[in-house]
Write a structure and sequence with these properties.
- The protein is an alpha+beta fold and 486 residues long.
- The protein is built from ten helices and 28 strands.
- The protein folds into four domains: 5-180, P-loop containing nucleotide triphosphate hydrolases (Rossmann fold, 3-Layer(aba) Sandwich); 182-271, Translation factors (Elongation Factor Tu (Ef-tu), domain 3, Beta Barrel), CATH 2.40.30; 284-380, Rossmann fold, CATH 3.40.50; 386-482, Elongation Factor Tu (Ef-tu), domain 3 (Beta Barrel).
- It is 23% helix and 39% strand.
- Strands 3-4-2-5-6-7 form a six-stranded mixed sheet, sandwiched between helices. It has a six-stranded antiparallel beta barrel with strand order 9-10-15-13-12-16.
- Strand 23 and strand 24 (432-444) form a beta hairpin.
- The protein is flat, with a radius of gyration of 30 Å.
- The relative contact order is 0.09.
């Protein structure tokens, strides 16, 4: 539904802080929270939370946290999706790391404004020029060097220049003209959820549009319920994170929620999400049996699994059911060596012992992103290995001494690198590859050797199609197999 432009009002920016592990993301989030958190929310703040709202210069800013571990390309992507501004935190003494590059890729894909927070500037090893160069290599060009991306030098630990960073966030937000309709029914995304032994299903919602009130009827994936309470606030307006009670089951992090008018709409929306197992059209498949605690979890996980990019590997889901893992699941898994995945369910010690005897893997998880990581890990094992060539040297053929059905004894001179025994060679004539074979014996001065260096002559026994002629080039190489990862 399109927003009514007449009802649009300015809303706070939603900011996600991303970066390589140990570059100071958590330290920065904690410093801002302790220094600037909105007073009325402070009573409900715990040591680690997924989102909070700060107030700076009479303006609110919402910060959302995302896990920093490797399992989580998808979670980072989700973080960027709901955020208006990304803070890319880079340690001044370490610079751009592989995880930093991954974050940059997601930020570019989502096409959201980015601010560089150059952290740990108080350290003696800080190297500003090195970091700027590495960022430029990733097409992140800062304003100081003629680019368009702002950079603020900070120390998250000491709080140095954090106010300047907050000012920059507000400036970028003003340029983005962030607005929302405060009067419509609320919608947004789940950013945290768990089962509280006393309170039941709890979730932290991030309201993206509209206003959420106590008593609102909410559908969230396969889960629904009437909001019983909004922790520490009376209502949740656009860009507000809020902890809610009242859902009938624990929702999955990353799912969208929306307020509806009545139970009929609830039924319609959940019916649309009936669980469907899709057949795979890939040649290689990872066989899975999926068990979950409730229908909502099962449907949400299936939905997310089908969105996972597993390259040429398909998912063949043999069974997807609610309930504990059983002996029947092991019997189903055994013939195809399927992986049994349990989400918020258990398997008894007897079942684990039976699965070990049968050679069936059982994995159980309470965190959905760890479940996805396991799926990717197991699918990676089915990928054909990547074959790489390590080039070793070139030899020019000077003489043919003997030709047999599948072997030749030849002589030549090493022109480049080394001639090495027991490796592969390509036969090159007029810069065109004619055949591939293997060296099974190598000699220098009629003595067997492991290698012959550049400039020296060698005698060798070649095994392969016997088509070598004088003046051909033999290119020596080793084949290396490398397991690919998703």
């Amino acid at each position: 539904m399109e927003k009514n432009k007449n009802n649009l009002k300015e809303r706070p920016p939603i900011v996600v802080i991303l970066g390589h592990v140990d570059h100071g993301k958590t330290t920065l989030l904690d410093f801002i929270r302790k220094a600037n958190v909105v007073a009325k929310e402070s009573g409900g703040i715990t040591q680690h939370i997924s989102a909070y709202q700060t107030e700076f210069n009479d303006k609110k800013i919402t910060f959302i946290d995302t896990p920093g571990h490797e399992a989580f390309s998808q979670m980072r992507s989700r973080g960027a999706n709901v955020a208006d501004i990304a803070i890319l935190i880079v340690a001044a003494e370490e610079g751009v790391k592989p995880q930093t590059k991954e974050v940059i890729k997601h930020i570019k894909q989502e096409n959201i404004p980015v601010i560089i927070a150059l952290n740990k500037i108080d350290k003696s090893q800080a190297n500003f020029e090195k970091v700027i160069g590495e960022l430029a290599s990733e097409d992140i060009l800062i304003e100081e060097r003629g680019g368009k991306i702002p950079l603020v030098k900070i120390s998250a630990k000491e709080g140095t220049n954090v106010d300047e960073l907050l000012e920059m966030i507000l400036l970028v937000a003003e340029m983005e003209e962030l607005k929302a309709d405060f009067d419509k029914k609320a919608s947004g995304v789940v950013i945290e959820s768990h089962l509280d032994s006393k309170k039941g299903a709890t979730a932290t919602f991030l309201v993206l549009d509209g206003t959420l009130n106590v008593g609102d009827l909410v559908v969230c994936g396969y889960t629904y319920g009437k909001i019983k309470s909004l922790e520490n606030i009376e209502k949740a307006e656009p860009s507000s994170p809020v902890k809610v009670l009242g859902l009938n089951n624990v929702p999955i992090v990353g799912q969208e929620f929306k307020v509806v008018d009545n139970e009929e709409q609830v039924r319609e929306l959940i019916k649309e999400k009936e669980i469907v197992i899709k057949p795979s059209d890939k040649e290689k498949n990872l066989d899975i049996i999926l068990k979950a605690d409730v229908h909502g979890s099962l449907g949400a996980i299936l939905e997310s699994l089908y969105k996972l990019d597993l390259g040429e590997i398909g998912l063949n889901i043999l069974k997807a059911e609610v309930g504990e893992i059983s002996e029947s699941d092991i019997k189903t898994a055994y013939p195809s060596n399927a992986l049994i995945i349990g989400f918020r369910v258990k398997a008894s010690n007897d079942l684990f012992n039976l699965s070990k005897r049968q050679g069936v893997k059982i994995r159980t998880y309470d965190i959905i992103y760890e479940l996805f990581e396991e799926i990717k890990k197991q699918a990676s094992k089915l990928l054909a290995p990547e074959i790489t060539k390590e080039k070793l040297g070139k030899l020019k053929v000077l003489a043919i001494f003997r030709t047999e059905k599948s072997r030749m004894i030849i002589g030549g001179k090493v022109e480049n690198g080394k001639a090495i025994n027991k490796v592969w060679v390509d036969v090159i004539r007029n810069e065109e590859k004619l055949a591939t074979g293997k060296i099974i014996q190598l000699q220098h001065n009629k003595k067997d050797v492991a290698e012959v260096e550049k400039g020296r002559e060698a005698g060798l026994t070649y095994e392969g199609e016997p088509i070598i002629q004088e003046d051909d080039i033999l290119e020596f190489y080793r084949k290396e197999k490398k397991q690919r990862e998703l």
